[in-house]
Amino acid sequence: xxxxxxxxxxxxxxxxxxxxxxxxxxxxxxxxxxxxxxxxxxxxxxxxxxxxxxxxxxxxxxxxxxxxxxxxxxxxxxxxxxxxxxxxxxxxxxxxxxxxxxxxxxxxxxxxxxxxxxxxxxxxxxxxxxxxxxxxxxxxxxxxxxxxxxxxxxxxxxxxxxxxxxxxxxxxxxxxxxxxxxxxxxxxxxxxxxxxxxxxxxxxxxxxxxxxxxxxxxxxxxxxxxxxxxxxxxxxxxxxxxxxxxxxxxxxxxxxxxxxxxxxxxxxxxxxxxxxxxxxxxxxxxxxxxxxxxxxxxxxxxxxxxxxxxxxxxxxxxxxxxxxxxxxxxxxxxxxxxxxxxxxxxxxxxxxxxxxxxxxxxxxxxxxxxxxxxxxxxxxxxxxxxxxxxxxxxxxxxxxxxxxxx
Length: 406
Ligand code: DNO
What we know:
globular; 406 residues; binds D-mannose; alpha/beta
């Protein structure tokens, strides 16, 4: 297969094991040293130790290769001082450089990161029941506004919503009991898998206040500053960065948002013209905006893609959406796959080592047996397996029908 099939693994405590992942047919592992506090150096020793755990099965003598490679890091999170451009940022940037060097020494080719302020990806409901009984992650704008205005009580939150949304949000808030309100709060600010932060209401308000003087332009300048320092080290170390788009790709809590559109991505790749300053195309994130032409983005920016998150979202009213199954929803996965395979062909013709772009099925539904288990929201085994199987079939069919994509 042309794309490298990868799977996100949350480390030794993930209920989905490396053996499970192997059986799912993935060959690449996507993971992070989640235990390292944000900003601190990933040491050579820690990286190598995790790599060994992933790639070698020590239950045999002599040990045997597991058939898995640590191919992508997702993520090395960027410290808030760097994002906010605070005076200590250079100290954290030096540490980030050190981590990149150590990752390069271990031969891990891709590092994902994001530039979302304060919170990583955001959802209001982690178990929205679908018609067929499956559970999906969702973002409901009315509930989000209810949290922002009436639970968090953010100053000037009313400026972020239309009168209609405010009216509906008030009604929603009034209809919720205290347990429902707390669940909503937890879903939004207690931290989703992979995002290491989790906040109380007070902490969260304080973190938001740190952005009072940071608008989109300033925030963009801070990203430029970071990339101009980090990319040269990534190039030297043989590491390719992949920035993840904003999820969802709209401003939340009045915070700046600068990785949401094709124009944003274009600006970022132009900061330093190198494949080491690359992109993670998360289909489901970008597709939440109807003005993002996803296959077109992959065609036009394909030469800078280092990682693909393949999933789909279904837009609802008022900017709400939920996670669709991988071949349905607003993402035209056929066109996305065709565009990705065309890029792979170009790379192949150039004999590039990164011809097999890593992709992973992202955010599956919770289905079947997993409905009765404790799972990482969006990352339960069976839903992801379904997604990956569908994507794999789609890829094979397109590859075989040369006519269509030549
Ligand atoms: C969610 C993920 C994100 C992503 C980070 C990248 O499922 O796509 O948490 O890993 O934003 O830094």
